[in-house]
Amino acid sequence: MTEEGYTPGQKIFIEEEADRAFLGILESFSQEQPLVVSQTHAVRRAELKALQLVVAQRLELRVPRTLLTNDSAAVRTFYDECEGRVILKAVSRGIIDEQSDELNKALYTTKIEPEHLAEERLQQVRLTGHVFQEYIPKALEVRVVAIGKRVFTAEIHSPHLDFRERYGDNTYKVHHLPAAVEQQVLALVKEFELQFSSMDLLVSPDGEYLFIDLNPNGQYYWIQQHIGEDFPVKESMADLLAFPEDFRL
What we know:
This protein is an alpha+beta fold. 35% of the residues lie in helices and 22% in strands. The chain is built from 9 helices and 11 strands. A 5-stranded antiparallel β-sheet has the order 9-8-7-10-11. Strands 1-6-2-5 form a 4-stranded antiparallel β-sheet, with helices on one face. Strand 7 (140-147) and strand 8 (150-157) form a beta hairpin.
């Protein structure tokens, strides 16, 4: 027995029972309520990064060349195919949760350098899955927030590879997506049966839009705090919840 009075197996069972009970209640709401933003099963499916990329590509959004693997030899081959222009990203949300907030660590997008291909470092790839993508220079990054049938888009100008590294260095402004890209974004959200999603796009120097990833539970109000009333996402979420028949996707 542990000091809490339960064996490790019993603790796992208790946690899983609580998880399933709670999620079952959440899912049951969809049988009685006109709208749930968004259903748990849809959120969990939409979080699968490999699936996001495949669906986005099918909807004719351009996607950077991508390798999801734990095979070190495949990484080396991919690096050569991309002529050394490769970045590494987490498969999931990219946060290491420790017992203390002071020890929590964010895993930012990282550019792969030649020294990373040293054999002793490359072998660490075997430990788990990794997302490697072709590095494409950016003119700017775009954060898309889809709330029901409405789409809000903000430009993020950052000197960093990953704008999350230092928010204070970034500048923000409203961006207007081309109509075709906006329809592709909405089609992607609808494909995953969501009513809300945040997405990251990249605009290349020649003006081409590339899909990076989707977060079905992404933060969005922080952008409104930077841009102001020209980015009314919280008001739009209130409209969706209050008048789903008018604003749902």
